[in-house]
Amino acid sequence: MIPPINRRRFLRLGLGAFASLGTVLGSRSILQKHKLSALDNPSRDFAITEWSPLRELAANKDIIFGASARFDQVMSDKQFAVLLAQECRLLVPEWELKWSAGDHHLRPSPGEFDFAAADAMLSFAQTHHLLFRGHALIWHESLPKWFQKVVNHQNAAKVMKHHIETVMGHYRGRMHSWDVVNEAIEYDPLASQRADGLRQTPWFEFLGPDYIDFAFRIAAKADPDALLVYNDFGLDYNTAMDKAKRRAVLGLLKRLKAKGTPVHALGIQAHLRGDSLDFDPQSLRQFLKEVAALDLKILITEMDVNDSKLPADIQKRDRIVAGVYEDYLSVVLDEPAVIAVITWGLSDRYTYLSEFFPRADHQPVRPLPLDTNLQPKLAWNALARAFQKAQKR
Ligand code: G3I
To answer: 52-389: which CATH architecture?
Structure first.
């Protein structure tokens, strides 16, 4: 029996042959059929031996399992809040610690901070013995409308310092970790005008490439107890773009470490795709090893599996999604530097993918460990199996 991961590679090669055949024959259905058989292995049953909450299965190996959630989900959906507290050891606000997201404005104006929503979520976390992580202090997205009008070359350093010191100071000593800088490398470094692949964000324009070092140094003083994380996406597959991203992120981390920047960990968002045939365990393993060799911890910070391009059949879709979770985590958790696995949402009831990557057939998406009725799916089993198989840290 061809093991799932090699099976994908074996069939991908075959698929390449069909690509020309499919084109010649003009029959996409041949391609689709063979792509699906490359993705789906009906013999995988994801059986588990122990039905303990994911937070316990992970904690048995000194791994933290957690999820993101939003204020209204935690405060108004009691059924969901119970599952969040039962399954997770860590909570990260999806919106409430950004400068401005949805109807939550941490920064309503240049002189104001509104901590109410994040404070309520921290209180929930403390009540249920969950760790709390902050996302994201310095990013080019989710900036309030006033930012563009107010911030400039002259005051950007002061604005950044004030934001980091005030927000981290407010939660000092109560945070597991902070995404200090988020997504500083171009979406596609191959298309970047810069050799280092740095995005030319407002922070970059106003403060130059050293804005990242500057942010981390302020953060280290603002809360010496928090793990300080550089967070990014597009690091998962063996595509030209992801390989370029890995090189650029590794280059950035090496430069930061060389200048003594107080960065403690890399956050790998792991927004995975159910329809990808480009997962290569060896190259991912090598990347994780090189990051760990910089004396950095690694957190999987926003894991989900986009199923928008998968067949409508729910059994097939759930099996493919679970296979992606298990194949990815079986590689990632082999790296001892990986200390946390955090999903971006816990239940299909609340996932940003419903809005950002809806299915063409308008079927509800199914990217997360629990379904919309908060019942465990095969993806839950995949996480449980990965934690059970992992070595203790
Ligand atoms: O629905 C409100 C609308 O009523 C309001 O008028 C408008 C004003 O801005 O906001 C609308 O909400 C937006 C929401 O998407 C719609 O679903 C939020 O502003 C917007 O922040 C939100 O997008 C979030 C996105 O980050 C940008 O902050 C997503 O929920 C969130 O899941 C996503 O998460 C990001 C991570 O932070 C970083 N990594 C990638 C990840 C996925 O994109």
So the answer is: Alpha-Beta Barrel (3.20)
